[in-house]
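Work Package 3 committed the consortium to producing structural models of liganded targets before the mid-term review. Because experimental data for this complex are still outstanding, the team generated a predictive model from sequence and the ligand definition alone, so that downstream docking and mutagenesis planning could proceed in parallel. The input record is reproduced below exactly as it was submitted to the modelling pipeline, together with the SMILES string for zinc ion.
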Amino acid sequence: MAYPQDVSMPSGWEVRSVQYARFKDGSGAFTRWAVYVDGRPRGSEFGEQARAGQHARRLAEADAVDAVLEAAIGQEYHYGIRVWPEPVPGRALPTWRKTDPHLGLRDYAFAWYSADPPPVYAYTRVQYERACAALELGPAPDSGLGGYGDAYGDFSLAEYAPRDVITMTLRRRRIAGLEREQAAAAGRRRQQLRDAGLDKKACTREEFEQACAIMGVPPLPDGTCVAVTSEAFSRQYSGVFAVSSVGSLASDEIVRKLCFARATTLEHEADAAGHHCDECGVIITGAGLAASFGLACSPEHYADMADRPGWYATRSSRR
Ligand SMILES: [Zn+2]
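The resulting structure, written out as tokens with the ligand in place, is given here.
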């Protein structure tokens, strides 16, 4: 198998013009162009005939790519779904136990009847490399996946060449597989914590260090636990990959979980002690930055407080 070369428009495909009127009385007519397959529109419309023609060739190339993938991967690894071409009248859906290639767990599978089976969307490493080899595309290492482009890139056939779109699609399928494998590994590690009675939402320093020893991760200082937790929150809620010194720690689900439990206790303690930033009011876990004009949560708020005209200056300027 190889990457499909010079795919031409299949029979039954044509580029048709579509007439529109800008106004209700029919005036201001303009023309758009679209690909029609067996008389039905497919994909985007374009202002120029040449672009619609280019889009048709891209769609045909993408179909040829899918056919190569189907031959290379097929339904072999479809966890939980077995694709049967048509239902058997009068018979219930058969179920049977099957091993998930990502999780290594045996669970019930069910049948899916479809003439047009869904693509396998989560690849094992072996599947990913097999798919790349079938299309003569270079596979990325697992460690090179999951960057900004993988998370936010919008690769559509209207904008990108099929080769770029399929490269990105294969990366995303491997990322989906990786996520399943990582979730399973983290689940197995969490079970160890539960067995030790240390799977907690908030914990003392002693419990934290015991849990870290069981999980084989370094017992981070309290201040770092707080930093890891805020890094994880900013990633989750602002969608921003905050760049900080604890970035790589926050990527480890177990480290993040243990830090979160420790930071929760520190926050309760700071709240009870009335430890707040005098600039923004946030609870300060740890020492904070003490100055004659108050307590600051960060160097930024320390500087803000230092830069503001003090009580004496405001009083003098008002007079
Ligand atoms: Zn502050």
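Reviewers should note the following from the model. The CA atoms of residues 55 and 158 lie 6 Å apart. These observations will guide the Year 2 experiments.
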